[in-house]
Amino acid sequence: MSQIIRERKHQCKDYKEKLPLLQVVQQALVPPDAQRLAAEGARVVVGDINLDGARAVADRITEASGQALAVHFNLADEASCQRLVATAVETFGGVDFLHDNGADLSSQTLGRDGDLLNMEVEVWERTFHTNLYGFAYTCRAILPHFLQRGGGAIVNTTSDGAHGGEPTRVAYACSKAGVNALTRHIAPRWGSGNIRCNAVSPALS
Q1: Positions marked active-site
Q2: 183 in a domain, yes or no?
Q3: What H or E segment, with its residue span, contains residue 6?
């Protein structure tokens, strides 16, 4: 374990020359990741539909002598995702990392996500537009930039809900299963271009 930690600390020195781009819809999901990367030298762009929440994260980073920019964007809108990537590139000169960490966890969406017999088409559409289409939008926006730069890394946040069954939240589980499939598509398709794509799968309580 100590060897792995030392290797990670050594690797993180490279963050001073790189810019990770973090994508979120629910601001509460991201601060530890953004702040840790910034502490290791990364310049961070925090994109969120909740601009006040993104600014709060960016302010904590800058108060700790890091570099961060808060940007308002909508993960469910492709044009907004394209603008977010363009803003990061224009501000810092490039992007090396993308962290997709978003989901519609609102009471109007996740709170109405029942079983299949009680499914509401509107809930499924809202869930997929944010939780799955949004990840495809951001990855599609960043991939040409990564190919031009000679590589990059993507981390998609999925969920344990994609792997096991539960009585409700079936739309959420299906959307996250789609993120897993998207990740498995990107990794071998563009791996030869020095682009890594992985997923992390926390539990949804």
Answers
A1: 172
A2: yes
A3: helix 2-12
How many Cα atoms are found within 13 Å in the side-chain-facing hemisphere of 98?
A: 33
pLDDT tens readout for residues 1-20? 212 222 233 344 555 556 55
pLDDT tens digits, 38-54: 888 888 898 999 899 88
Tokens read off for 63:
């108060």
Instruction: List the CATH number of the domain containing 79.
Output: 3.40.50.720
Residue pair 156/182 in contact (Cβ under 8 Å)? The answer is: yes
Domain hosting residue 24, numbered range: 18-200
DSSP 108: T
Query: Can you name the residues that pair with 68 across neighbouring β-strands?
Result: 44
- From the list 189, 127, 184, 188, the residue with the least C-alpha distance to 201 is 184
pLDDT more than 90, % of the chain: 58
The DSSP H or E segment spanning 100 is strand 97-101
Nearest alpha carbon to residue 139 among 30, 48, 23: 23
